[in-house]
Design a protein that fits this description.
heterodimer, A: mainly beta, 6-stranded mixed sheet, 11 strands, B: mainly beta, 7-stranded mixed sheet, 4-stranded antiparallel sheet, about 0% helix, about 50% strand
Chain lengths: ~110, ~110
């Protein structure tokens, strides 16, 4: 089955700097790659996703890139703000089974 | 729409007790799943269902049972609670297009003493 690795496990950045979180996946048939944000005590919420026929997608300050050959995808957050502090999860899906998640990255934005 | 709802929000059990975590969705989603979340372990899949009457095991199914008698409800049963089942449990559902965007419930925080 699919295996998703996520790095780093923790990340601290200064407010206004950029943050990058990277994930790799094992199943070359995977075709959907979402990113979820989870604030303390809350449920995971989808912030951006990308499909295997697209190399990059942007939504305001966040972007995701996908390299199918290398089987990795990344989340980029620019101009970070304190409210970006949260745990971020990447995930992948292949076939008819639910999402497989990475172990998460705790992002701290220091004001 | 209420989306995905879960009850209870918090629960404390003693070792060996059984209980059912409730999950319901009002979005007419066919696909539903249960995850557990432990510190540093991400979200691990317990069981899932692609429609009423159909269930399958995920990565960590031992100690848990599920059933799907209706499209709306997908309860998770702990047969004999163990301290290793202390965790936060999330139910999720997804609709059109299969397992793509999954909507999560608010979670149930379970402690087994």
């Amino acid at each position: 089955g699919e295996n998703v690795e996520q790095h780093p496990s923790t990340l601290s950045v200064q407010e206004g700097d950029s943050a990058v979180i990277k994930c790799t996946y094992s199943d070359s048939a995977s075709n959907y790659f979402p990113w979820y944000k989870q604030e303390l005590g809350k449920r995971p919420q989808l912030i951006i996703d990308i499909r295997s026929n697209v190399g990059e997608k942007k939504d305001q300050r966040i972007a995701v890139t996908l390299n199918k050959t290398a089987k990795h995808f990344s989340l980029h957050i620019t101009e970070t703000q304190p409210e970006d502090s949260a745990v971020y999860f990447c995930a992948a899906i292949s076939g008819n089974t639910p999402l497989v998640f990475g172990k998460g990255t705790r992002l701290s934005v220091i004001a | 729409n209420a989306g995905v709802t879960q009850t209870p929000k918090f629960q404390v059990l003693k070792t060996g007790q059984s209980m059912t975590l409730q999950c319901a969705q009002d979005m007419n989603h066919e696909y539903m799943s249960w995850y557990r979340q432990d510190p540093g372990m991400g979200l691990r899949l317990i069981h899932y269902s692609v429609g009423a009457g159909i269930t399958d095991q995920g990565e960590v199914p031992n100690g848990y049972n599920v059933s799907r008698s209706t499209t709306e409800d997908f309860p998770l049963r702990l047969l004999s609670a163990a301290p290793s089942q202390t965790s936060v449990y999330f139910c999720a559902s997804s609709g059109t297009g299969g397992w793509n965007e999954q909507f999560f419930g608010p979670g149930t925080r379970l402690t087994v003493l």
